Structure formats: C-alpha cells, structure tokens
Amino acid sequence: MPRFVLLLALSSAFAAQAQNANPLGVTIFASAQPTLATFAFGASSCHDNLLVGWTANLIGTQPCGPLHLWTTTHECGDSALPGDHPLNDVDQLTVQSIRQGTLQLSLADLPGFDSTTDGGLACGVSGVELVHRVCGSVNTAYSCFSIGVTPQPTRARPFTITYDTKPPSAPTLDDISAFDGTARIAFTANTDTETVGAQVLGPTNSDFVERAVVSASQGNVLVKDLQNVGSDGGPVYLFRLVGYDLAGNQSEPSAEVPATILHTNGFWGAFRERGGTDPAGCSAAPATFLAPLLIALGLWATRRRVP
Amino acid sequence: MMSLVALSAVVLAQTSLSTSLVESDRRMVFEAKFGPYVPLIDRTWAQGSGPYFRVFNSEAMILGEGVLEYQFFQAFGTAAGGLSAGYAEKYAPSIGPNGEKLGQKTGLKITPLKAYASYRFDWLARNLSIPFVPYGKLGLVMAWWSVSNGDSVEIADGMRGAGTKYGWMATGGLALMLDFLDPRLARDFDSGMGVNHSYVFAEYAAQELTNFGTQASTALDLSSRHWMFGLAFEF
Lengths: 307, 235
Hints:
heterodimer; A: 307 residues; alpha+beta; 10-stranded mixed sheet; flat; B: 235 residues; 8-stranded antiparallel β-barrel; two-stranded antiparallel sheet; 4 helices; elongated
C-alpha cells in the first residue's frame, strides 16, 4: 500500500513536470506572457521595446549550429528572406546547454516600418493592421559529426507581433433586461473584439460613462448600481456598447438603447407587501435546538459498540 | 493422514457455509428520499391571497434529504438516533410594479437539518419474514432559508430575505424490506458489502417550523405536512 501511494505520488509529480516542461522544438514568445503566441500593439506603443523569449527543447537531436532569429512580414521559413530583419544569432553552445534566452526588440524597427526594404509604413499610421513574425531556425541532427549525416533545419514556432490601429467593428446590442438596479445587456461582437464595454448615460451624468467591461466571449455584460425608476418614470437611462481589440483600439459605439430600470418584487417582496413580518432571530431557539443535537453527537462519538 | 486432511476440508467448508449465512452486525441506516414539499406559508392568509400562492401558485417544491442513523437498541424493534440534511428550492418569475410577471426569476431555497430519534418495529420482518417495517421518528428541525430575486438575496423594506427557523418534526412511515425478492442476493450484499437489509419506504412527515411557537402569526412559516419516498440501507 505505501509503495502504491509513493508510486502514485511520483507519477503525479512527473506528469506535472511534463506538463510544465517546454514543448518540443524551439519556441518564441513574449517574455511577459509566455503562453501567448501573439502580441498586438497600437500607435501609442511605437517607441516601446518588447522583450522576446525563446526556449529550445531538442530531445533526441542536437543543434549543429547557431539559432538564427529574424523578423519578417512573411511566413517563417528556414532562413531570413531579403527585407527581413536579422536578429543576433544564439550560439550553438547556448542552444545546447542553457536552452533558453531573451532578446529585446524595438517595435519601431520591425520590417513593416522599414521604408527601404519592406512595407514602408510609418509606425503611428492609423487604420492599419500589419502582421510581423519573429522566426527562428537551427540546424539539427541526431549526431552532428557522424559520417553521412546532414543536419536539417528545425524551425521555431513563430511569435506574431501585430501592429493594429484598425478599430474593431461596433458590437451589436441585442437585448437589455433591467431590473432592481441592474441591467443585463446581451451583445454580439466580432472575432477581432477582445473586450466589450458598457457605457451608460444616466440621470445624474450628461455624457456616457463606461460602467463595466467584460470579455467579448461572455456575450453579456452586467451594469450594477443603477436607480430604480418604476414603470412610469420614463426611459431615463441610455445604454450603448463599445468594443476593444487586443491592441486597445476602440470601436465606434453601438446603437443607443433606452431602458427603464423596473423595481420588481420577488417572493420576499410579495411576502412583505402582504403584511408578512419576520423578526430577526430568536435567542432561545438555537440553544433549544443545539443542546440535544450536541448531546446526541456526543453519545454517538463515545459509543463504540451496539450492546 | 489422508482422512485427517479430508476431515479438515469438510470442517472448513462447513465453517465457511455457516459464516456466510450469519448476518453481519448492523449499526447504521442510510436513507435517500424525495418528496413534494409545500411550506404552509399561506395559512395566515385567506385562501388564494397568500404570497406563496401569488408567486409560486402554491406549487410544491421538491425536497431531497439524506439521512444517517445510528442504532443504539436492537431487541424488540430497533431504536436509533439520526441526523438528516435536505434541500428544496422553487423558482418563479419576479413580479413587476403592475403585478405583471417578468423575465427575472425569484427563488425560495430551504435547507432543513434534523436531529431525531427513531423506532423501527422490524421484529416481524426479522422473526416472521413479514417484510413490512412500520416506523416513527420524533425530533428537532433547523432550516436555513433564503429568497433570491435576480442574482442576489432579495431585500424588501430594508429587511434581508434570509434567516433560520427552528421547530420540531414527527414522521410515521412504512418500509418494505426487499430481501424477500432475492434472499440469496440479499445475503451476498451483506457478506460482500456489509449491507444487512435494503428497503423502499413511504412516510408522512409533519413539521412545525415556527421557532417553537414563539414567532408572530405573520412571520414566515415553513411548517409542512408532506409525503416522502425513498430507499434505505441498513448496515
């Protein structure tokens, strides 16, 4: 039995370790978010740098040369094309022994913004969606120095950097149900939209104010702390939605929809409305209940055998 | 030598046979049961004007309960102490300012916890193979309740719709011991799993949840008279 438990624990530990281990091959990612294979930025980030990480997990093979890294506006191949921007190579020994590293990219120096070689757009231009990739490739073989063995290029899983100043299309406001100080707004957003914000124009503010932001995949957003106005108060609240993409671009607002926040009665309200009362607490009752319960539990715990 | 081995084998076989026919010790009972439950909230009001009728149309909640009993007396019948925990809920549309039913839901949730003593007259079943076991239970009840409206607990006139009620309960029931359907399977269930007997049962429960009669007549009354049906295992 203890052996089985130990085996189980070890298996779980190895399984957990395997799950955390780097994927096979060479992987490139943003250091801040290693799980994401994409990064998007807008015009306001043009002067920023991005720290990019790489890991090499070459089980069963060995690197036979340096790891070449470059940025491109094309698909990644075995090597950089004319117009691509080469980055510093990572030497063979580092790839083989340390197996991970970082490099710093200036976003403004990406090839899409290079007027002499590729694209020629200025970083900061609006209404554009420009995809770059950070690519990598290293020649690998089972044994680099064996006779008759030709090292083959192993491509890295690329990392995508998108310059995006193109706002997503506005979400569609499908439905509002507004009860008891809370409005639930159902919406449809396109795939480019990452988050959706609910903006409210209410009785005390003269302009729309964003009151809640949710993930676009959620499909509805809840706005709380609104005032009930009853059935005859008129449509005092106006609701609209805006969408945001990964780069933070904001869409045009959706159509504005008025809604009255109705006060409703649940069962408790109906009970109170009909004269129902319920005094808070009754000090004697819990003791009356708990004393026999504790005695019964005590007897139960101390008794070991049926006579 | 050969005859000694043969004799040992016969003795061993007989011992094995006799132990398989002997019932194992029984100490506990587990019950799982369900039944319709209409709290007597409206008994203060004229028929058809109470809040439970207004919101839930007097429809029954479904109450589910799990029970564990410990038997402390086994002679002429079986006496035990038991604990049970249950849950019931009912949802209906919320009511608008003009009495209209809306898309939002209101719900009443009740979680009763009971401590009781029980007596099962199983002498007939055990000695005369008459498979019916009448029983009774008497005990105390504590019930947590809450009312939701939309996504949260409802507050009306500044009072939160949630609390605890206390009271007592009395139950009478009849259980059918299922062993007669397949006695051999019943014995195997005992020797293999330690379950001495299995039952199906029906019981009528009366519970008064009025804080032992101390609450006002207009207070929320979760008392009830209801039937429960279930399955029990004695082990």
